[in-house]
Specification:
The protein is mainly alpha-helical. It folds into 2 domains: about 1-50, no CATH class; about 65-145, no CATH class. The protein contains 8 helices and 2 strands, in the order βαβααααααα. It has a two-stranded antiparallel ribbon. α4 (about 75-90) packs across α6 and α5 packs across α6. The protein is globular. The two termini are about 30 Å apart.
Length: about 160
């Protein structure tokens, strides 16, 4: 069963609406959401209580831990990677625009064109490819939430 996440006061509210939603169907993502919400009792609190600066710092540290500091990947690469992956699996540009809440289809067209072309042209050294594969394998633990409740996890 899908989960609907409501976004209040999104940054793109001027052209996409002051309240928006994201329909999540991925079972692994749903498991994480349910795990996080299991102890959420304050409706005024944020589900994601971190700043973007903190998220970028965390992403850079994860890359550094895997020897990928020079890979030129950014936190924004996750959005680009997801959009490119969904396009390559058959999602139409119009579906991507709605899912990603893009304002302009022309922007998304050029975004996907460049991302897919970059994938084809990207030449990574065997060493970087090996590290990316290792990172992918080691990150499998993140595909599902911990087996303990959030409060117990935070108390560790």
């Amino acid at each position: 069963m899908p989960v609907v996440v409501v976004i209040e006061r999104p940054k793109n509210r001027l052209y996409m609406g002051r309240v928006q939603h994201v329909l999540i169907k991925d079972p692994e993502c749903i498991a994480w959401i349910l795990w996080l919400l299991a102890v959420w009792t304050d409706p005024e609190s944020y589900v994601w209580p971190f700043t973007m600066s903190m998220a970028r710092t965390c992403f850079r540290k994860l890359l550094a831990m895997r020897g990928l500091s020079n890979s030129r990947l950014l936190l924004a690469s996750l959005r680009a990677g997801a959009a490119t992956h969904l396009y390559q699996t058959g999602l139409s540009i119009e579906q991507l625009a709605f899912k990603g809440r893009w304002k302009n289809l022309n922007t998304l067209h050029s975004y996907v064109q460049e991302a897919v072309a970059s994938l084809v042209l990207l030449k990574l050294s065997p060493d970087v490819l090996s590290r990316l594969r290792d990172f992918h394998v080691s990150s499998q633990v993140l595909r599902k939430p911990p087996s303990c409740p959030l409060q117990q996890f935070l108390a560790r």
